Amino acid sequence: MRRYSGFGAVLGAALALAMPLAACSSKKEARGCPRVEIVDDLSRLIKFADGPGRDPSDVLYAARISDAKSQCEYDKAGVVVDMTVSIQGERGRAGAKLPGGDVTYFVAITDGKRNIVAKRNFTSRLAFSDKGQAQLDDELEQRIPLKPIGSPLDPLPSAEDHTIILGFQLTPEEIDFNEKQRRE
Predict the structure, then answer these.
(1) Strand-strand pairing, 59-75 and 44-48
(2) What does the pLDDT read at residue 151?
(3) How many CA atoms lie within 13 A of 59 on its CB side?
(4) In the chain, which residues have pLDDT < 70?
(5) CATH fit for domain 31-183, picks 2.60.40, 2.30.40, 1.10.12, 3.30.450
(6) What angle do CA 171, 90, 136 make, to 5 degrees?
(7) DSSP readout, 3-41?
(8) Would you list the domain boundaries of the chain?
């Protein structure tokens, strides 16, 4: 029996040491991540060939922001948001020979009062397959600075009330076209 009690003591000590480590490694961040929104009217882009024509035969390519996934991690200075922005594209009749097309989209960050606190444009290239389709997954990192804690009694600063907004950076004519398409 004595042999086992030594083993039990060693096992008990090992478990006692492992328990706090497991608690630390499984500790989940209580603060939430910013919400991510894709602006519906700015989620679609139609690029037309030069000239006045705006019917299907004049389309070079079309693109759409199809998804945005995010996760965040807090540090002493704020929160870092890792994002994947998914964009799908398709060549149009006027762009039948195009190998690719550029898309410019924006990522804006708003505070809890919906004030834009940061905005940045990103330009990426859609590479069309032989069938005229394209899929793009851009990986981005956004940093949201937060006020430092004044005293240990202050609540932890959070970016839960912030929103990350995505959309194509469209011209006024492209916005008008999207609005007309939505109404029809």
Answers:
(1) antiparallel
(2) 59
(3) 16
(4) 1-29, 149-154
(5) 2.60.40
(6) 85
(7) HHHHHHHHHHHHHHHHHHHHHHHTPPP-SPPPEEEE-GG
(8) 1-29, 31-183
Cα four-point dihedral sign 89, 90, 95, 96: positive
Nearest Cα neighbor of 149 from 98, 95, 93, 74 is 74
Q: Do 37 and 164 contact (CB within 8 A), yes or no?
A: yes
pTM of the model: 0.78
What's the order of all strands across the beta sheet hosting 59-75?
A: 44-48, 59-75, 78-91, 133-145
Q: How many CB atoms lie within 10 A of CB 4?
A: 9
Residue 119 identity? K
pLDDT at 31: 83
User: Looking at the chain, how many residues does it have?
Assistant: 184
Amino acid identity of 5?
S
Q: In this structure, what token pair is assigned to residue 93?
A: 């009749």
Please give the pLDDT value at position 19.
38
pLDDT in the model for residue 10: 34
Quick: pLDDT tens for 73-99: 998 888 999 999 999 999 999 999 999
For strands 116-127 and 100-110, give the pairing: antiparallel
